[in-house]
Amino acid sequence: MKRATALKNLNRIICKIHSINGIYATPLCNNEFVKIKKAWVFGSVAKGSEAPNDLDIFIEVASHKLSSNRDRKGRRKIFRHAKHQIRLHGGFKADKTTGHSVPTILNSHNELCKWLRKGTKKTSIHFVGEDEVFETLDYKVLIYPRNDFIIE
Q: Using CA atoms, how far apart are residues 120 and 54, in angstroms rounded to an integer?
């Protein structure tokens, strides 16, 4: 990848995060929304390489569930709907006698990654707390909430 392409992709991601003020709504996922606290760029793009391999971004998030009754006892009941499906508190799971599966609930982090990566190529998004590499990074530049990265 050329550096100009990496910087264009980075600028696109920074603009996306700022356009939503760091709050990405995910009502159909396991969390109601994802709040981006901080985001950093690291790796070869941050170090100034002319031919970076990919664009690496670390994101620190705070996921929120707005529903106050999410752990109530009634949501654990199993309701039978069809011959081969069992409805379990909003999601479906396949009957064990058949090999068919129905999609489960979506992950809000995956949906955020899909949205940020849309229109970009070779972009790796990592989350603080899920990757142990974050504490060992020698060079990272803050891009949200304050943009410290200077685009030439």
A: 11
Could you tell me if residue 139 is inside a domain?
Answer: yes
Longest Cα–Cα distance in the chain: 61
35 belongs to a structural domain: yes
In 3D space, the residue among 10, 20, 2 whose CA is nearest the CA of residue 150 turns out to be 10
- DSSP H or E stretch at residue 144: strand 140-144
Q: Which domain holds residue 30?
A: 3-65+107-144
Asked whether residue 149 is domain-assigned, the answer is no
3-state class of 11 per DSSP? helix
Can you tell me the distance from the alpha carbon of 119 to that of 11, in angstroms, rounded to the nearest whole number?
12
- pTM exceeds 0.85, yes or no: no
pLDDT tens digits for 125-140?
999 988 888 989 999 9
Q: How many separate domains does the chain show? A: 1
| HEC-encoded secondary structure of 120-151 | CCCEEEEEECCEHHHHHCCCEEEEECCCCCCC
